[in-house]
């Protein structure tokens, strides 16, 4: 992978970590382990995500998150707890993908990765505030399943074509901003 592709992969995985941190960590590590992500020789030391322990822990957490996300009140609690965890996880994912020998890349990846994960998490949580207030449980499950499918699809695209995935990630950043502002207006109307 070229430097541009690695940066695009870091951006995409960070953004997706704001939705499904554990699934993204698991799939990225599995892709590294199976050789789907071709790391340059100088980055082979970064295959920490491919460590069997990391794969088992992130896989188990992804499975738990899959079910927790389908129940409205548990989902809201889960999102609240992960407001700090997902941005940090997104920052660390970006850091694990870029060149470890260049401090400028490290700091840039960490800051941008954390910011992207926070923004997508905020968009997800803002959307869920609106969906979870619905009296029927079906809408939450539909939205959650849509997030699962979108995360898996975009992650597959990020592995196959990181630059295209980064462009889609940019569109998602703009959509997240719109969702945050919409949720803010929605909450204001509820309070008023």
TrEMBL record:
A Pfam match: DUF4126
Keywords: Membrane, Transmembrane, Transmembrane helix
Domain DUF4126 positions: 7-180
Keyword Transmembrane helix listed: yes
InterPro entries: DUF4126
Domain of life: Bacteria
Bilayer-spanning residue ranges: 6-31, 43-68, 154-181
Official protein name in the record: DUF4126 domain-containing protein
């Amino acid at each position: 992978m070229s430097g541009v592709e690695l940066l695009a992969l870091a951006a995409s995985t960070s953004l997706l970590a704001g939705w499904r941190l554990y699934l993204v960590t698991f799939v990225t590590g599995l892709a590294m382990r199976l050789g789907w992500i071709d790391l340059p020789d100088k980055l082979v030391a970064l295959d920490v995500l491919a460590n069997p322990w990391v794969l088992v822990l992130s896989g188990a957490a992804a499975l738990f998150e899959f079910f927790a996300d389908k129940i409205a009140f548990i989902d809201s609690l889960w999102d609240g707890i992960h407001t700090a965890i997902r941005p940090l996880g997104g920052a660390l994912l970006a850091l694990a993908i870029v060149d470890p020998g260049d401090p400028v890349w490290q700091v840039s990846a960490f800051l941008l990765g954390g910011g992207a994960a926070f923004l997508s998490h905020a968009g997800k949580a803002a959307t869920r505030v609106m969906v979870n207030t619905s009296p029927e449980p079906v809408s939450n499950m539909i939205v959650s399943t849509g997030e699962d499918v979108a995360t898996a699809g975009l992650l597959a695209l990020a592995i196959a074509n990181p630059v295209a995935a980064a462009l889609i990630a940019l569109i998602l950043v703009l959509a997240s901003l719109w969702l945050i502002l919409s949720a803010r207006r929605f909450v204001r109307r509820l309070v008023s």
